[in-house]
From TrEMBL, chain A:
The keyword Hydrolase does not apply. Gene3D superfamilies: 1.20.1050.10, Glutaredoxin. Residues 1-24 form the signal peptide. Residues 91-214 form the GST C-terminal domain. This is glutathione transferase. Keywords: Signal, Transferase. GO terms for biological process: glutathione metabolic process. It is an enzyme of class 2 (transferase). Its EC number is 2.5.1.18. Belongs to the GST superfamily. GO terms for cellular component: cytoplasm. It holds the Pfam family GST_N.
Automatic annotation (TrEMBL), chain B:
Residues 86-218 form the GST C-terminal domain. SUPFAM superfamilies: GST C-terminal domain-like, Thioredoxin-like. This is glutathione transferase. Residues 2-81 form the GST N-terminal domain. Keywords: Transferase. One of its GO terms (biological process) is glutathione metabolic process. It comes from Linum trigynum.
Amino acid sequence: MADQGEVKLLKTWSSLFGLRVVWALKLKGIPYESVDEDLTNKSDLLLQYNPVHTKVPVLIHNGKPICESLVILEYIDETWSQNPPSLLPQDPIQRASARFWAKFMDEKALPSMWQAFTKKGREQEEGLASIAEKLKLLEAELEGKKFFGGEEIGIPDFALGWLVNLVPVFEEILGLKIVDEERHPSLSEWSRRISDIRVIEESWPPRDKLVTKWAAIRDHFLATARASSG
Amino acid sequence: MEEVKLLGWWMSPFSRRVELALKLKGVGYEYIEQDLANKSQLLLEYNPVHKKVPVLVHNGKTMAESLVILEYIDETWPNNPILPRNPYEKAMARFWAQFIEEKCNGGLWKIMWCKDEEERGRLVEEASHCFRTLEGELKGNKFFGGDEIGMVDIAANFIGYWLGVVQEVSGMELVTRDKFPVLCKWMDEFVEHSVVKETLPPRDKLHAEFEARLGAPSWKY
């Protein structure tokens, strides 16, 4: 294997975006140094390497930073193209489809989930209706396929990873079911398939810590909403 | 025999991005204008998820989302590349295209529809900051792509042309020559580019359309 150079990943212990990059690096067998950030006290490293957004994840390859998780995933795939698996299909039409769905996960599905989780009352109902609609589309797209990319796991699957470990946490906190076997048989099967992958299984952030963290986040958003409505 | 079709709308900067990429690469295509108030069966069939333009059809296979389509075009017709070949520089281009979409265009959109004066003031300040950041990326070059237009320039087409019309209609003074001389110089170069010129909607028609729409409570389709 050619010299990979120095790879560093800035993330947090719980970041769903950082987790995507961990999966890509581990699946491709790329050695890297992991740096967990405290976003309430951003390090000089983070501010230097992501001055535009000051967010994680940031991949630093031979001293050069790359930001935005989907951009990082494509960079990893192109730079370590000799390391299987490919994170995108070879066929250009299928690649376009994979990119389309990755965008959908981030721009449509995740914001709907965020609204359902951080709001209450009518706004929450709208969020729940929205995520239900997005899940229906995802369920239809997944039907008959092992992964969103086809036979192999790929970028759109990484983009939906939060469905597997975070949605059960949200369900516990909200006391609601968002994904279920009956309405979402393909997504449920896909979740099990994802969890069976060893490097993914060993990378999940601890569930109890996630419950504590996300319950606090919901409380914060509800308190802010109460304060601003007077 | 290559068959390329594009479902677009004359006013949409998104479908114009795709036209620009196809023209830059000399790819022949059939353009099918859509009536977004009255969406065609074709559009609903080809983009059932979003029901929006642009949709590119290549040899019967469809795809949607302009930035996704641009990547497909660059991979399929590699002449006159719009993305750098070096993976790091390519990642940078993708980062800035995303930034333009989310922060610049996203910010402008919120301002255009904000009815509350105080909130609009805050949004304008936020957007100014984003435009300052973007302006910094030109780094003395003619275009974001360097000497030639690239993906980032194409992604910035709304800023390059549509924004001027929006500012005229709304009286918004966000990107002005005195505040953003470098970005405005880029805008001049962009609209004067021989291929870009072919893809710009007629200014008077655009002006009239924005005038009619910006008075309304929300964007209709």
